[in-house]
Write a structure and sequence with these properties.
The complex is a heterotrimer of chains A (101), B (543) and C (649). By secondary structure, chain A is mainly α. Chain A is 77% helix and 0% strand. Chain A has one domain: Helix Hairpins, CATH 1.10.287.3510. Chain A has three helices and no strands. Chain A is elongated and about 50 Å long. The longest helix of chain B has 32 residues. The two termini of chain B are 28 Å apart. With 543 residues, chain B is mostly helical. Helices cover 69% and strands 3% of the residues of chain B. Chain C is mainly α and 649 residues long. Chain C is built from 27 helices and two strands. Chain C has a two-stranded antiparallel sheet. In chain C, α1 runs antiparallel to α2, α17 packs antiparallel against α19 and α18 crosses α24. The termini of chain C are far apart. Classes of the chains: A mainly alpha (101), B mainly alpha (543), C mainly alpha (649). Chains in contact: A-C, B-C.
Chain lengths: 101, 543, 649
């Protein structure tokens, strides 16, 4: 039995919405970070689904790029977060608004 | 006509190389700058000697494809109009760099000045619109840093104003340039080119409206740079706040670029636009002369007064250009050189007063002639040139401009222009009186006289002032053919330009490759004297 | 004729040497150098004149080219000299009197720190003057014209550390420039009409009647030239600079007012006579301006206390006579008066300088008096000059003024009447001056005492102070020129006496002013006698009235000295109020309200608007990550929505 493609897409949309909502409403930087990962993987899922559906390898190869970029992002992002936590304990995203105009 | 060495490339790149060398070898910066600028003067002198009079076209042309896809090439050449501007630039820069004392970082100052010199030379020599634009814009960068780095109390305000104002003008230049190049491409077999001679040939095919609009775009940029009233308000701040050396080259050379753009681009490329909007520019120039004089009279600071007086002088240049007579345009070219020499010397002298007294306010000066008679005498001589005393260079240019304007039935503009004879005397002599004459009321006004070194550096400028006033014929013989050729072109393309018949009465030769009117309007240009290829003697002298 | 070059070359060489070597040459020698240059120039003039005499009258001119000046297309301006009877006559008296004044200055300027500078200016002045009269085209004339203007600036403001001198110098230059403005426009018209500035192209065809000039063109060109002449020759309405110019050293006053600068306007009108011929309106204007100036300046001179200012106003008045003669068409009479005026006015100024020198720079006549006893030679010479200026027969002024008045009568009796009235006033104010300076009590003594009484201890009221002030005759370098000019004032009229075939100047100038451009002025012999008698009568009347009114040491006569005359009819003040006031207001408004307020304000306003916009927009940058994320999300949604709709549509 094959699962219809629509289910994959619905799952991806749900995951993306969860991630996006989390990004907007949460203040914990680490959680926001995980939400971004969630959104990225939702997109990855969509890519894979369509690759399968359209029988086109391009979507799958795009996923590799996204994964690599995400990995790099995690390295930099986590480093920033660690550095931030060292400066001030339990910092939230709203505490860092030095870029305010 | 030709030279065994690529003289124009050397003239542009030598100062640029000097600038790099100054940065790399900071300890030797002053010596390197001295060598570079003096060598530059030597090359410019060589070019002036090798220049063949009686030729209207560009000489020593060098051409090298640069960005081939867009028809951009590194294309340089010199004609009678730019010849003396190049010479004047080469003369004024070493004096400005080594005359007034420079406080602060020598290395970067010298580097910026040399870069500025290279860019000015590039603008004067460019035969490619794109090269012209690039060089024209590059001048802003050293200009900005010289003001900001070595200027007076309000230097950052002045530098920012200068940069943004002239850069805003350049936006019009850029758009007009692209429009012209793209609109003219179909007439060049669909090939886009920035070559000035080709563009001048093709621009005549553009629709009338397009010509006028493109002209207006160029004109805005140059009106800001020149500057014409009412686009002048950056000028007094810039000249006043810049260091002495900076004022000398900014006033003496950098702002000739705008005036030069009028004649090299506006009139040469778009004669119809020039003929249509000429009366407007004549009016702005006449207003500039009257209004500038009025504003200058009331200034309370010597340097600011000299700055404002420049507005009047540059208005003369524009008045001459848009009179469309040989006398007027030649006078305008001469006024460019004159103003460089006179204002350069004047700012140098103002700097000397500043070095000695630390103030330039009239209320705190007075009676300096008592202790510094030679300084006063030199100052007076330069002022006399500025008010147009016959026998000094200012008169020749001013008179040619006015008589050229008058003879084109533009009587009233010339009459308004001639009021400068009176007003110029008022503000300059009043300034002289308040600075140098009267009793010494403030003890500090007993100052050291001019030194031999300062006098020696001023001497070339003074010699130029006297020589061009007494015997300008060699100068005029080299300028007039190019001007007459330009006016032939105007007459052929713009019937409403009203070029006086007699003022085209000049014999000259022009190579066929540079004769832009071969296709556009074969009849009128070739029927006139000088259409042929064979070189002829210099413009008819005697009576 | 090639010696004409030398006339120009000597003073030029002298001035260049003094400019560069002035500091190296020690004090009296720079003066002698300048004097040599001036006398050499005079010698060259005499030589050229003599060689002219050897030629037939029709061949007494030469065009001597120098080099090209401004060759642009059809504009050919060259430096070239043109020597003819008119220009050589002018050279003769300009360089002659100028050389005497230069010699005089050696004594007068002794000890001045700016000694060399003074002689540099004197030589340059002479150079400019001979260029002015010898040029072969109007533009070269203009060079000399402006040159004398500049030199007078340098000389009037010679004692630059006096504010009044600096201001007077500037005023002279600017006023002259107003005239030069007219001159320049005249040149533009000339170029438009003739395509040339050369006398040979502009004037000579008109003289020979090979060409005619439309009346309006002639009027336009001539009146604009005349504006220049009015400025240079200090006629109404541009005469105010000349009395102020007395701030300069006295030899300068003599040089400017007698020999050179102020006669330049007279020369220009004479030179432009062919143009004037075609404009009857202009002839009336020239004559009227001349007569009006002669009278107005004479009234003002009646109440001036400065010894030099009386002479300055009398100069203005006498130049009015010259203009009157030229406007009336009798050029030789005007030029005759110019030459005579050079003699006696040079004399008067030099003698006045001698008086000022003797009294240690005192110029107020009311503080002089009784000087005849101390300065006998100067006094006698001054007397000669005074009688010549007052037109008492048989001194110079009588003969020349008589010819001027005959011409004026021919033109219009009204102009003649003004001239006669001015002649009476001239005799009056000159006798007043003579009486105040040379007769009566020695008031300079009281003055010194008064100084002492007023507490000026430094000046001192002691007897020793008096002795130091004892006036004495000047040195020989100063006295010789005075005596020479005194003889010239006594016998100069023989150059153009109306009898005995002595009318040398008229005959000499006849080829320059042929009947084609200057129809002969015919006045019946009987009328001439009457005119002469009336002029002499008026002169004597003024003389005796003046001598009577100021005899016996009278110092103040309020009835004869109304305040409005002291202030020159308040004309200078009125002009100052009417012109300077509005000009200053306009300039102030332009520089501060318009330029700083509007023009610069507009630009700064644009900058401020940009800054304000930025200040508003920066509120969007909250710094909160979620806001940005929301923005990204909404933006993405909007784009998606738009694309969906487009795809659907």
């Amino acid at each position: 039995m094959t699962v219809p493609s629509a289910w994959y897409l619905i799952l991806a949309a749900v995951l993306f919405t969860i991630g996006a909502t989390g990004l907007l409403v949460r203040r914990n930087v680490l959680v926001m970070f995980m939400c971004i990962e969630l959104m990225l993987n939702a997109v990855n899922l969509t890519f894979v689904t369509f690759a399968r559906l359209l029988n086109d390898i391009g979507g799958q190869s795009d996923v590799f790029f996204v994964l690599v970029v995400a990995a790099a992002e995690v390295v930099v992002g986590l480093a920033i977060i660690v550095a931030m936590f060292r400066r001030r304990a339990a910092a939230t995203a709203d505490d860092i608004h030095t870029l305010r105009g | 006509m030709t030279s065994p060495i690529p003289i124009l490339d050397i003239i542009v790149f030598l100062p640029a190389g000097g600038a790099v060398a100054c940065l790399l070898l900071p300890r030797l910066a002053r010596y390197l700058a001295l060598v570079a600028s003096v060598a530059e003067l030597g090359f410019a002198f060589y070019m002036m000697v090798a220049f063949e009079p009686g030729q209207a076209g560009f000489q020593f042309v060098t051409r090298q494809s640069w960005i081939g896809n867009f028809g951009i090439s590194w294309n340089l050449g010199v004609d009678g109009i730019s010849l003396f501007l190049v010479a004047m630039t080469a003369l004024l820069f070493p004096i400005a760099m080594f005359g007034p004392p420079i406080r602060g970082d020598q290395r970067s100052f010298m580097a910026w000045m040399l870069l500025l010199e290279a860019a000015c030379m590039g603008t004067f020599l460019a035969l490619d619109l794109f090269v012209f634009f690039v060089m024209f814009e590059i001048t802003l960068v050293p200009g900005y840093f010289i003001i900001v780095g070595w200027g007076g109390a309000r230097r950052s305000y002045a530098a920012m104003k200068f940069f943004i104002y002239t850069f805003a003008g350049s936006a019009f230049f850029f758009v007009a340039m692209l429009a012209l190049v793209l609109l003219a491409a179909p007439f060049n077999g669909g090939h886009v080119t920035f070559d000035l001679i080709t563009l001048a040939r093709d621009a005549g095919h553009l629709s009338h409206t397009a010509q006028v609009l493109v002209f207006a775009g160029f004109a805005v940029a140059f009106a800001v740079k020149t500057p014409l009233v009412p686009f002048h308000s950056w000028l007094p701040d810039t000249y006043t706040e810049a260091p002495t050396s900076g004022s000398m080259v900014l006033a003496g050379i950098l702002f000739k670029l705008g005036a030069y753009g009028f004649v090299r681009l506006c009139i040469f490329l778009l004669p119809r636009g020039a003929a249509d909007l000429g009366p407007l520019l004549l009016t702005l120039a006449a207003v500039g002369i009257a209004y500038g004089a009025l504003v200058t009279i009331m200034q309370k600071d010597l340097k600011r007064l000299v700055a404002y007086a420049s507005i009047v002088d540059v208005a003369f240049i524009v008045l001459g250009f848009f009179a469309f007579s040989s006398q007027g345009v030649t006078g305008g070219v001469m006024e460019m050189v004159n103003h460089g020499l006179i204002t350069g010397a004047l700012f140098f002298l103002v700097g000397m007063v500043w070095e000695r007294r630390g103030t330039l306010r009239f209320s705190e000066l007075g009676g300096i002639q008592k202790s510094a008679p030679v300084l006063a005498a030199v100052f007076l001589a330069v002022i006399l040139a500025a008010v147009g005393l016959p026998g000094l260079n200012g008169f020749v240019g001013e008179f040619l401009v006015l008589v050229g304007t008058f003879s084109t039935h533009a009587h009233w503009w010339a009459v308004v222009g001639a009021t400068a004879v009176v007003t110029g005397a008022i503000y300059l002599f009043w300034a002289y009186q308040r600075v140098f004459q009267g009793p010494v009321r403030i003890a500090a006004n007993t100052v050291r006289d001019i030194t031999w070194r300062e006098l020696g550096l001023l001497a070339p400028l003074l010699a130029g002032i006297v020589f061009l006033g007494v015997y300008p014929a060699p100068f005029l013989d080299r300028v007039t053919p190019s001007v007459a050729y330009l006016l032939h072109h105007v007459e052929a393309q713009a019937p409403n330009a009203d070029v006086p018949r007699g003022s085209l009465d000049v014999k000259y030769a022009i190579p066929a490759s540079q004769n832009v009117d071969l296709r556009a309007s074969a009849t009128s240009a070739l029927a006139r004297p000088g259409g042929g290829d064979k070189p002829e003697a210099a413009a008819g002298g005697g009576r | 004729m090639n010696a004409t070059y030398a006339i120009v070359a000597f003073p030029l060489a002298g001035s260049i040497l003094l400019l560069f070597g002035g500091r190296l040459i020690r004090q009296p020698f720079s003066g002698w150098l300048a004097t040599f240059a001036a006398f050499a120039s005079f010698g060259a003039s005499v030589y050229v004149w003599a060689s002219m005499l050897g030629r037939p009258a029709s061949d007494r001119h030469a065009d001597l080219g120098l080099f090209r000046w401004m060759p642009v297309a059809d504009l050919h301006v060259n430096f070239g000299l043109y020597a003819d009877q008119l220009s050589i006559l002018w050279c003769l008296f300009s360089t002659g009197v100028g050389a005497l004044i230069t010699l005089y200055s050696i004594g007068y300027m002794k000890g001045d720190p700016g000694f060399s500078r003074f002689f540099f200016y004197l030589n340059l002045f002479l150079f400019s003057m001979v260029v002015l009269v010898l040029a072969d085209n109007f533009l070269f004339t203009f060079l000399g014209w402006e040159g004398v203007g500049y030199c007078s600036y340098g000389l009037i403001g010679f004692w630059f550390d006096r504010d009044s001198a600096a201001v007077a110098a500037k005023k002279a230059f600017v006023t002259n420039r107003i005239g030069d403005f007219g001159f320049m426009i005249a040149l533009f018209f000339m170029f438009e009409h003739f395509r040339s500035f050369n006398f040979s192209a502009v004037l000579f065809p008109l003289t020979a009647h090979h060409a005619v000039l439309a009346g309006t063109t002639a009027t336009a060109i001539f009146l604009l030239l005349f504006l220049g002449a009015v400025g240079k020759s200090a006629q109404i309405p541009l005469y105010m600079w000349l009395p102020d110019a007395m701030e300069g050293p006295t030899p300068v006053s003599a040089l400017i007012h007698a020999a050179t600068m102020v006669t330049a306007g007279v020369y220009l009108v004479a030179r432009a006579a062919p143009i004037l011929h075609f404009s009857p309106d202009s002839q009336w204007i020239v004559a009227s301006v001349g007569a009006g100036t002669a009278f107005l300046a004479a009234t003002i001179a009646c109440k001036q206390d400065d010894i030099k200012k009386v002479l300055a106003y009398s100069t203005i008045s006498q130049i009015g006579y010259m203009m009157l003669a030229e406007g009336s068409g009798d050029y030789p009479a005007g030029i005759f008066h110019t030459v005579m005026h050079a003699f006696f006015k040079g004399l008067l100024f030099l003698a006045a300088g001698s008086v000022i020198h003797a009294l240690h720079d005192e110029q107020d006549m009311k503080r002089m008096g009784g000087l005849f006893r101390y300065l006998r030679v100067t006094g006698v010479c001054f007397l000669f000059g005074f009688l010549a200026l007052a037109a008492i027969p048989p001194f110079d002024g009588f003969w020349s003024k008589d010819q001027v008045l005959a011409a004026a009568w021919h033109k219009s009796p009204a102009l003649w009447a003004l001239g006669v009235a001015a002649a009476g006033l001239t005799a009056y104010y000159m006798s007043r001056q003579f009486m105040l300076v040379f007769t009566g009590q020695a008031r300079w003594r009281d003055q010194a005492a008064e100084h002492g009484a007023a507490g000026h201890a430094a000046v001192g009221g002691s007897a020793a102070g008096h002795d130091a002030l004892e006036p004495h005759e000047p040195p020989l370098t100063m006295l010789v020129p005075i005596v020479v000019l005194a003889f010239a004032s006594l016998f100069g009229w023989l150059l153009n006496a109306p009898f005995g075939g002595l009318d040398f100047i008229s005959r000499w100038l006849a080829p320059v002013f042929p009947a084609t451009i200057a129809p002969a002025v015919h006045v019946a012999t009987g009328t001439k006698w009457v005119i002469g008698a009336v002029a002499a009568g008026m002169a004597f009347l003024g003389l005796f009235f003046g001598l009577g009114a100021w005899r016996g040491g009278v110092v103040d006569r309020p009835a004869l000295e109304p305040a409005f005359l002291e202030h020159g009819w308040y004309i200078d003040e009125s002009i100052a109020v009417a012109v300077s006031g509005p000009l200053a207001t306009a300039a102030n408004a332009a520089s501060f309200a318009v330029d700083a307020g509007w023009v610069d304000g507009l630009i700064n306003g644009v900058a401020r608007a940009a800054a304000q916009t930025g200040r508003q927009l920066r509120r969007l940058q909250t710094g909160y990550l979620r806001n940005y994320a929301l923005g990204i999300g909404l933006g993405a949604a909007a784009i998606l929505f738009y694309m969906t709709m487009r795809a659907g549509g």
